[in-house]
Amino acid sequence: MRALGKLTAVEAKLFLRDPGAAIVVLGVPVALLVVFGLVPGARQPSEDFGGKVPLDTFIAPLSVAVLLAMLALTMFPTAMATYREKGVLRRLSASPVPPVRLLTAQLVVNLAAALVVVLLIVGFGAAVLSMALPANLGGFLLVAVLGTGALFSVGLLIAALVPTGRTAGGVGAAVFFPMLALGGVWVRKEDLPSFLQPVADVLPLGATLNGMRETWSGGSPELLQLAALVVVALVCGGLAARFFRWE
């Protein structure tokens, strides 16, 4: 445990020293919240959102879901593939510290970054923009945990299959952007064609976002959303464990 703690501390320092990480992890979600939150009418009930406040029922969940997806699908697999490319994992395999601890340390750092920014989004939104907190907190936490597991399992599968960090970034982006289009991010699920709306609840990012939207306004996540997140986590996690290579 002591070795894991030291390795996690080192990975955290490397994460914080990368200015791009701070811009992506902090800047993008907070910018989404602020820019869209200051749009006229965003903090007032709207008929387009079923009489609910857009900031609470769409913009805030969107900021959280996009943050999780960026960490899981781009930053995490890129870091792991870069370590493999540079031989870090191979050298660790010959040391007393098993490579799996590096994987664990990377997961801990990324999950900690996600937690900090989620708290920042919720705290900043509540204090500055008068944003309401999730009305169904238990349901929100359930969706957040399952969504994080599903998204990071996809990121782990990417890291397991690609040979280099640059390739991991490209593959992660190729997975991330279609989820934005089809998951209800660029266009709300309700505004998608009817045949695409179930797709938005099956894709990991869409299921996370739409489940958070439901719980933020006091409802419950749909069974399809929860089931999709569990299936993705199990399938992608299992495939990643099967094909992951340290060299």
TrEMBL record:
Broad class of where this protein is predominantly found: membrane
GO BP annotation list: response to antibiotic
The ABC transmembrane type-2 domain, residue ranges: 20-247
Gene Ontology terms, MF aspect: ABC-type transporter activity
Lipid bilayer topology: Multi-pass membrane protein
Compartments where found: Cell membrane; Membrane
One GO cellular component, as annotated: ATP-binding cassette (ABC) transporter complex
Keyword entries, A-Z: Antibiotic resistance, Cell membrane, Membrane, Transmembrane, Transmembrane helix, Transport
Pfam families recorded: ABC2_membrane (PF01061)
Sequence intervals crossing the membrane: 21-39, 59-81, 102-133, 139-162, 169-187, 223-244
Family: Belongs to the ABC-2 integral membrane protein family.
Protein's UniProt name: Transport permease protein
